[in-house]
Specification:
With 177 residues, the protein is of the alpha/beta class. The chain contains 5 helices and 10 strands, in the order ββααβαβββαβββαβ. 27% of the residues lie in helices and 31% in strands. The chain is globular and about 50 Å long.
Length: 177
Amino acid sequence: MLKGHFLLTSGRHSDVYFEKFTILRQPPYVEKLCLQMAENFKNSGVELVVGPTTGGVIIAYETAKHLGTDAIFAEPGEDGKTRIFKRGFSIDPGQKVLIVDDILTTGRSVFEVIELCKSYKADIVGLGLLLDRSGGQVNFEYPFKPLATVAARSWEKSDCPLCRDNIPITQRGSRKL
């Protein structure tokens, strides 16, 4: 966890940033975390694990490994507001899908993947996250099982007290805003 003034992937500002790649670059830790995520959904009949780029690729792969299924990932669409499958990826209608991701603030990436999976008529059995930084404030219509939940403050730019105090901002995420 880093402290400062950060522009999050969601577009919101925060005084804390959880650098997921500190963990995602260490296979032994990723394996343990994704094993727990797989355990959380082992009785859900998962047939495919789907994650959004970038961190979700690693998490989907490792979680699928523990569930004995395939993993695919959803990339940003041309409009930057949707997700699409490329590389020949697809979902069969009725296929039982587990959606996974790294860190949740507003749920934007997860909602994009949900909409994509629904467009393929997937049977979404649940959502697994490494960290829910919303403090449980984002609601989904599917079973949602984060490995950890914290209430980290974030603001729209117009409401950001750090901007008002002229504290320099840092952007660390991968989504272009």
